Amino acid sequence: MDTRGKTNAEFRAEITETLGQHDANFDELNHNFNRVNDALQGVMAELQAMRIAHSHRSSEREVNPFVGGSTSHDRSSATFNADKNHTTVKLNFPTYSGEGEDPTGWIFKAEQYFEFQNIDAPRQVQLASFHLSSVALQWYRWYTKSKGQLRWKEFVSALLHRFGPTEYDDLSEALSRLKQTTTMNAYQEAFEKLSHKVDDLPENFLVRCFIAGLKDEIRLDVRVKQPKTLSESISVAHLIEERNQFQRKFNNPVRPATTPSF
């Protein structure tokens, strides 16, 4: 904002107008959340219908080696007919070596593959084991000698304890201790990275942890707005951070450079 040549009153008027626009944005944000949620529900319903239709088009897809009745020998990828023009897409199953890699990303990709290719639960660990290498494969061979055949959830739990970050043992506690020290963008990135490593955390728990970790100058105003979801909490916090930046500019206006007298 250029403050040169403006009176104090003009500058205050501009700041007041800007802050008023931000307050209006809060109300509009609350109104839009329900509309966005309804739209997402409609998209999810359409995707579910498409998935059901696709599962019945067995004559138009290549049979996967881990679905009953398969004759294909390619276990690392699968192709399918994406539309009536027979466009093919090749999906590669991700590999994991365990050498300094965070396994949470690999687990997420593997579960996406299972869902998309309709891999039966009893075959999921078997398929995943074919794509372990190096240290991870060595650990898997040792672990299954004593534990026997594993279910997917058991495998994931053991893999995370072996190769996951040290805070995995109590991620919910680590999440509640997380604090904002710099910008909202940096805090949001750290919060999302940590929360994605554990499933089934209640929405209200995530909201409480997120708000509790905010800087004092942001946290109190976010609580006043009483956001109900994590996405709403994040949006409100960003708006408050931006408003605070405007207020700081108002309290410390840029003074025009003075010409030295001789």
TrEMBL record:
It comes from the Eukaryota. Residues 58-79 are annotated as: Disordered. InterPro entries: Retrotrans_gag_dom (IPR005162). Residues 126-216 form the Retrotransposon gag domain. It holds the Pfam family Retrotrans_gag. This is Retrotransposon gag domain-containing protein. The lineage of its organism: Eukaryota, Viridiplantae, Streptophyta, Embryophyta, Tracheophyta.
